[in-house]
Amino acid sequence: MSAARQPATIDILHATPQYELRVKRRGAGDLLLEVWQLPSHATPEVREARYVGGLGGRNFALVEHRLLRQLRAEHIDITRTRTGDRHRFSVPETWALRLGLMFRALAPMRHRGYIRAVAEGIEAMPREEAAYWLGMAMHRKYPRRVLKALRALLVDPKYS
After folding, report:
1. In terms of DSSP H, where are the helices of the chain?
2. What is the pLDDT of residues 112-144, one digit of tens each?
3. What is the total count of domains within the chain?
4. Is 82 inside any structural domain?
5. Which domain holds residue 89?
């Protein structure tokens, strides 16, 4: 393989959006998870890290078991994080899209049944649908309306 072809290969490898999961333990049993989009060749408009979504506190505790299962599948261990520690993990785009959407949709919610229904619905979404909803929630003038519509679609009428 010639030296001239190697830079093209490297550019192809980095031609996907890059995402990072940031984990912070704020206290005993209080984790904060955030998804950030990092600058890359695939996203020249992103010049510095861009916040995608975050979840912590009570709502995180309600879906923690689901997220820990997904994190274990990605070989990410956040259970050893101590109070005040911060960790950063690189995550694949598909997983970051679902996490960011889930964090944005669940953050203001209070009803446990609705939280469970929305989390299950987002987990079941194909990559394209999650990307669509997250894009709408991040780039629209009124993102709360988009997230409210998503929640209304995902909540089963039997919980009403």
Report:
1. 6-13, 57-73, 93-106, 112-124, 127-139, 143-154
2. 999 999 999 999 999 999 999 999 999 999 999
3. 1
4. yes
5. 16-159
